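Hi Y.,

Following your request, here is the sequence exactly as I used it, all 606 residues.
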Amino acid sequence: MLRKNCLHKFIVSALCSLAIWQLNAQVKFSTFVTDAEIVVGQTFQVQYILEGATEKPQFIIPSFKQFTVHESFDNKSTSIQSPGLQMVEVHSKIVWLSVNKPGYYTIPGAIAFVNGKRLFSQPKKIRVHTRSSVSAVKPGEYEEDIPISVLSELKPGDNLEDRIRRNLFLKTIASKSSCYVGETLMLTYKLYSRLNANSQILKRPSLTGLSIVEMVDSYDTRPEIEKLNGIPYYVNLVRKVQGFPLQPGTMQLDLAEVASTVKFVRIENDASASKDLDDLINQNKQAASGRTYFDHDVTLVSNPLSIEVKPLPVENQPANFTGAVGRFEMSIVVPEEEIHPGDLVKIQVIVKGSGNIPLLVAPDIKWPRGVDTAEPSVKEEFNKYVFPLQGHKSFEYSFEAPDTGSYVIPATEFVFFNPATAVYEKSISRPAVIKVVPGKPKRENIDQEEEAVLVKQNTPLHFYWFGVVVLLIISWIAFQFWRGKKSSRKEMMNTQQLQQAESVEKIDPLAKTRQALERQDLIPFYHELEQALWKLVADYCEVLPSAMNRKNVSMLLAAKNIDVETIRLFEELLSECEWALYVPNHQLQNAAIAFEKAERIAASLC
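Below is the corresponding structure, written out as tokens. Let me know if you'd prefer a different format.
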């Protein structure tokens, strides 16, 4: 009994550890700071990013005692991850800060409650300079810094559209502007940014006319710093692939589209323009009243790009050419163990090299007389991170060994087109010899041994064992019948209860919200209210979860002829819910007013 209890505890601990490991492997919580080097009074952004959560998290941010908090808000976006291009939700808490004293500071980490777990993000360090010390920094010392906060400030005379055009754009990059049919081509779509923007992909290029291999495991929201024309940008991959054109002609690449919300600060008084210290102090005191924070929505489209795809040369094209483009070598592998008549023989034809590996087909092999093979099983392995694609493809043929003797598979040609030389080349395998020696096939030996064991068994004992097996089968069937009858009654009761709950929810979509208000439990109240609002809109507009954002929902409601006042009330109530979930000291009176607004919205949408 003691050993069983220990074993049970060990299994439970192992399963719990595995569950925690899987959660940590899927959910990532991190801290991101837009600028590691800033000046006194300059605003900068801190992002607490949670990736892979299956439910909406609750963020608890630090108090930022040494900083001035200008604004904080929540953001939700999606990212794409391989394999299978799976969509992953990304939740973030974004805070705008500034500091009035120079020195070294630590941005504290935040806490996120998600999936019943508490996660912590790591702290980040920044350095704050005085305005006079910034000019003394050596050129190139911080050349990788991207002044997002400065570029997000609009002073009198600055042009907003020009600021976006220069600092936020999509770019399509192709490894070649001209190639042959089947030649490996690398295509990259990137989002370049030097602004404080939240972006969501509206259209990922499908790249029709190409056979595609993805070059990355996942498309996440973590940017990398990359220089373009000597200027550093934060860069996010929209798509990066290796493609093989399937037809000749001019191929117009698909466009990518990204929706971005750029956060700007409009400054009416430019304190930095003053050279007098007293004026500078006075203007900094007035700066708070002269700063206006606002969002600007913009849709970015990648630059159009076309590829000229040339047909493969018809002149000098061998008759046994099957469409391989690149550089390849072919070999034939036969079994090393002894082969007897009747044995199952497996022959591998392996083509390795670089090029359009996924499009390779088996070469034509002249099998010796007496060898009858079926269609081969095909396997391919390649390094998708390397351009051009490198790896191998194997074709495995199976057949039953014929009578004794030597069987020769003659040398076989594999023809490919080399785009580097624009010439058809070939790889020739060595002849392969299959030697079949006298002996019994392995399968027959096994069958004869099994028959010998059966003969030696006592016949009456055999019948006894048969009776025991039949009795066990009958008992198992009876137990399953009794268990199924019991579970069906329980399932019928659960179904009735579920139908009753669903009917109540359909009658009153705000039932859970009303119950939380009656209990005066305000945090669950605002959480249920927010969920009910999104569900009301999703059911009314018949919209997918991936399109559930304020901009899309407002447009869909307007298209459904919902009045402007209801749409405004919906957006206002959502903002109120988000604010109330993260700010303490809620008032019951405000919650009651919010519930009345929700009832007005529900009346318009139900």
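Residues 25-142 form a domain with the Immunoglobulin-like fold (CATH 2.60.40).

Thanks again,
Q.
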